[in-house]
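YM 10:42: AB hydrolase-1 domain-containing protein sequence, as discussed on the call
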Amino acid sequence: MAVDKIAPNDPRIERKQAEVRGKTYSYLYGKPEGTPKGTVVLIHGFPDISLGWRYQIPFFLSQGYQVVAPDCLGYGQTASPEKLEEFSLKSMADDVKALSEHVAGPGEQIILGGHDWGGALVWRVALWHPSLIKGVFSVCTPYNSPTTYWFDLADLIAAGKFHNFKYQLQLRGPDVEAKVKTPEDIRQFLQGIYGGRGPNGELVFTTEQGVVFENLGKMGPTPLLSEDEIAYYAEQFSHSGLRGPLNWYRTRKINYEEELPLAEKAEKEGAAIKIQPASLFILANKDAALPASMAAGMDQHFVDLTRGEVTATHWALWETPEEVNKQIKEWLDTKVNKPTANL
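YM 10:58: structure's back
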């Protein structure tokens, strides 16, 4: 049976805006029948938009939650600030907190979910604002703890580490932003990164090389999005282009500096920094950018971590939505909303 999903301009959701710490955030909002039993906030990754959660929004509505899925900073109809510091994980974690309080109300806890860069961000929200969160989950993206030492990504790759992140060297530079600008180029880029191929199997993106510019214009349809969906995606990305989304790759040093006090405190105390809320990590075991090896050892950084796994590539939310939703529901039922004994 096909998994229910929202469509662009779906009547079950509204497009709303909120002023968040001096920036306009655009978000999809869905309300269940009756009084919501809680608020779920869903944070997408790169290159994606709020509609990336199209298979999960109806699921959460069916479970009685109101749902907030923002276009993240730099994406879609949300602001794309000039200052790079606005794109740090700490700054955007503060944005998520402010947006959540705008919708749910001050002092109300949320369930927070993320995918790709959204996964990296939700772990940081849990780190900086644990009291905001009733439960936090990430699909594909493992947790990496703040550290006291700084290495540039280029140096790590040159030393033979993190070859799965080699593409990020290109994305943080000027070329992709400069060369993928027209609506048609953006659509071709998206079709290729979402699994489309050229007539001879050409790829538009690899983790080793990044964007293969000469293959823009050759990409056939993506198997993961309908024609209406890919047209909507291309239109949304054309609002601000790729500068904002790519800025997420340009803040590694800023993130390190902002998180250094946390790492130094943990080192001084001789104890790992722990994510306090109930947590779920769902591994996509065919994800070339985020392989299983990156999630090894992360358990020590959690008070209560549940692990799940799906047989999917990086686009697990769309390839295996039924299994993703099932694992989230099981975690919600057993860890987040577990009944407490009457004492």
